[in-house]
Specification:
eight-stranded antiparallel β-sheet; three-stranded antiparallel β-sheet; rod-shaped
Length: 309
């Protein structure tokens, strides 16, 4: 059998003859070499592909772990924000309750119309809807918390102002309670004024330190201001006397009573009955001798009687 082999680049050939057995061996050798090369390449390719897959899986696992960490962080942040928000809302609600309570008390104190200031209902609001041309902005969490802080600060300031107003009203009411004003009787008339007059027993000119209010025997004598009883009994010239200290230098006296209804040390309210009109002591008939003393000196009671009108 003849075989041709190319031995150089110029295409020159060399011819030689081999036997059939030799030819078969050569073919088997070539097949073996080609097959081995293919197997080696395939194995190498297969090994490389497995390595790439493992690396990709590792990267995905790493990214998944990072995502889980971020989700946990976001969830924790949301929970913290919700807790903070719930706390802020609780504080605002407490301020609202306090403001409502203050408002109700002030309405009662200054006698406003409860229908006009109804704290049980939401204040009336309204107005046209937003224009479609204007974009409606959604508040961010930071903006919402900022608005909540601002509202809370305003409510604290309003609460402080209402406290001051309530204190002023209470002081005014307290002053009104302890400031002598009005008549010491419910029914009757003035029978003698403050100042110089002819004494009903001697006929001589003498100073009258109070005013006399005549009426029916046994009729009610009332306190013209709140205070503490400092005298409740007989006293020369006054008969059965009631004396009340109102503070701020004010003292009132109620003389010639038939019966005394209070005791020394007792606290009495403005308008409370303290005695029954009579004619005890230096008196010509049923009446109450009413005196107002300020800082130890008697003053004209008419100023205080008129103040109660």
């Amino acid at each position: 059998m003849s075989h041709i082999l190319i031995t150089n680049r110029r295409g020159k050939t060399t011819r030689f003859n081999v036997g059939i057995a030799s030819s078969l061996m050569i073919v088997l050798l070539v097949v073996a070499l080609v097959g081995g090369s293919y197997y080696a390449g395939a194995k190498k390719h297969s090994t490389g592909s497995s390595s790439d897959t493992d690396e990709l899986v590792s990267e995905l696992q790493t990214e998944l772990t990072e995502y889980q960490t971020q989700v946990s962080s976001i969830r924790l942040s949301v929970e913290e924000n919700m807790s903070a928000l719930a706390q802020r809302l609780g504080q605002v609600k407490a301020h609202v309750i306090r403001l409502d309570a203050l408002g109700e008390r002030l309405i009662e104190k200054v006698k406003l119309d409860k229908g006009e200031f109804d704290f049980d209902n939401v204040p009336a609001l309204g107005g046209p809807g937003p224009s479609s041309k204007k974009a409606q902005k959604t508040l961010t969490t930071e903006e919402f918390l900022g608005s909540l802080d601002e509202l809370s600060a305003k409510m604290k300031q309003s609460s402080l102002q209402l406290d001051i107003l309530e204190s002023m009203i209470m002081n005014k009411e307290l002053h009104a309670e302890v400031f002598p004003s009005g008549r010491p009787i419910k029914r009757g008339w003035i029978s003698s004024y403050f100042g110089y007059r002819n004494d009903p027993f001697t006929g001589r000119r003498a100073h009258h330190d109070g005013i006399d209010l005549a009426g029916k025997k046994g009729s009610e004598v009332i306190a013209v201001a709140s205070g503490v009883v400092t005298w409740a009994g007989k006293r020369y010239g006054y008969g059965n006397l009631v004396e009340i200290n109102h503070g701020n230098g004010y003292v009132t006296r109620y003389g010639h009573n038939e019966d005394i209804k209070v005791k020394v040390g007792q606290t009495v309210k403005k308008g409370e009955t303290i005695s029954a009109m009579g004619s005890t002591g230096r008196s010509t008939g049923p009446h109450v001798h009413f005196e107002v003393i300020r800082h130890g000196r008697t003053v004209d009671p008419m100023k205080y009687v008129k103040a109660g009108r």
